[in-house]
Amino acid sequence: MENTYQLGPIKHFPVVTVNHILQDVLTD
């Protein structure tokens, strides 16, 4: 997944970041 957003366009970066934050909020 890291390689996907790193190699992919910037559009992919926010998606991964939002997903990570969402999971963090859900876990909290």
Automatic annotation (TrEMBL):
Lineage summary: Eukaryota, Metazoa, Chordata, Craniata, Vertebrata
Superkingdom, taxonomy of origin: Eukaryota
Gene: Dynlt5
Name assigned to this protein: Uncharacterized protein
